[in-house]
Specification:
Layout: E1 3-9, E2 18-23, H1 24-28, E3 48-51, E4 65-69, E5 74-80, E6 86-90, E7 93-108, E8 111-115, E9 120-123, E10 129-144, E11 148-149, E12 155-156, E13 172-177, E14 186-192, H2 194-199, E15 209-211, E16 218-224, E17 228-235, E18 242-246, E19 250-257, E20 260-264, E21 267-271, E22 275-279, E23 285-288, E24 293-300, E25 312-313, H3 319-326
Parallel strand pairs: 1-18, 6-13
Antiparallel strand pairs: 1-2, 3-22, 3-25, 4-5, 5-10, 7-8, 7-9, 7-10, 9-15, 11-16, 12-15, 13-14, 16-17, 17-24, 19-22, 19-24, 20-21, 20-23
């Protein structure tokens, strides 16, 4: 297959530790047989993919579905065509959301955001919030506070009352939770005056900041904490001759748009919009695609296991498979 470059990186730096040249077939192929009578290395399973359709399909309201989770990061997928039936206040984490499809009104003590596809926002720890979704889907990322934005906002939340047409204050609860908002980890649930809660935005100075990834090709980092780094990656057509190996972070990728083939030391898999995959720390990988592609990248400082059901798995690398992708 020839010589390729491998960028060796760490989570906290935008500059690589070093770049090395590799024989691509050796990089992706199996190791030489061991000359010793003891097992020196493990057999690893191929990469797995989790898929949730981006298009809305009608379903009753249900809690978000966990996709990946450890003790410091939780990734969820949610779809709504209704109100969330309570206001939620996190006791331990900042909560970041990404709008996948449809429209969603995010109502908080710091103002209202009308979310559209491609937008992120961060709810600081301790801010009560509710959602009104219209045939929409979004992702949620929880991690211990504080989390810092790494990019200027495209706009801010605004105090709005009523928060959406047809809104009427009703009997509603507030739920205070711990353990990254995992269902069943409520501390207290009690009635709340919704109008009074939303009116606090008129006296609060702090605002939610709405972020988007850059339109230009490359990686746009959006959020950073000790446990996590979160951003977007845009790329034009790519032949995948530059690999990347992050030594100290698991990498979660979520395909936003376009299709690409992920080539790794644990298999080759085609990614389409709505696909998640996890690349374990220290694993070399690249992408091959013939048109524009955009995905979310999340780096976690420790293993971030998959908790959702697997949709499909990567297939083994062969020189012929990779050559066909590049033809």
């Amino acid at each position: 297959m020839g010589t390729v470059s491998e960028v060796i990186a760490v989570m906290g730096s935008d500059e690589p530790l070093r770049t090395v040249e590799r024989d691509e077939d050796a990089l992706l192929g199996p190791p030489h047989p061991s000359p010793f009578p003891v097992k020196l290395w493990r057999d690893h399973d191929p990469l797995t993919v989790v898929h949730f359709p981006q298009q809305y399909t009608a379903r009753p309201f249900a809690p978000p579905r966990g996709v990946y989770e450890n003790d410091r990061v939780r990734v969820e997928w949610q779809t709504m065509d209704n109100r969330q039936p309570f206001y939620h206040r996190n006791s331990d984490v900042d909560e970041i959301s990404y709008q996948v499809a449809g429209e969603r009104t995010l109502m908080t003590e710091l103002g209202v955001v009308e979310h559209r596809p491609g937008e992120f926002s961060r709810l600081p720890r301790g801010v009560a919030h509710d959602n009104y979704g219209r045939r929409e889907s979004h992702l949620l990322f929880y991690t211990p506070a504080p989390v810092a934005e790494e990019r200027e906002p495209v706009r801010l939340s605004e105090p709005v009352l009523p928060p959406f047409p047809g809104w009427e204050p009703g009997e509603i609860n507030e739920a205070v939770t711990q353990c990254m908002g995992t269902p069943g980890h409520d501390i207290a649930v009690f009635p709340v005056n919704e109008r009074s809660l939303l009116e606090r935005a008129f006296t609060e100075k702090e605002r939610l900041r709405v972020l988007r990834g850059a339109d230009a090709p490359g990686t746009t980092w959006l959020y950073r904490s000790p446990a996590l780094r979160l951003g977007t990656v845009r790329a034009a057509a790519c032949d995948g001759r530059v690999y990347r190996r992050t030594l100290d972070a698991d990498e979660i990728q979520y395909q936003i748009s376009g299709t690409r083939t992920l080539v790794t030391q644990r298999g080759v898999v085609r990614l389409e919009p709505g696909d998640f995959t996890r690349i374990p720390l220290g694993l070399a990988h690249t992408s091959v695609h013939t048109a524009d592609s955009e995905h979310i990248v999340l780096l976690s400082d420790r293993a971030l296991p998959q908790v959702a059901e697997t949709s499909r798995t990567a297939e083994p690398y062969t020189p012929g498979l990779l050559a066909a992708l590049r033809d």
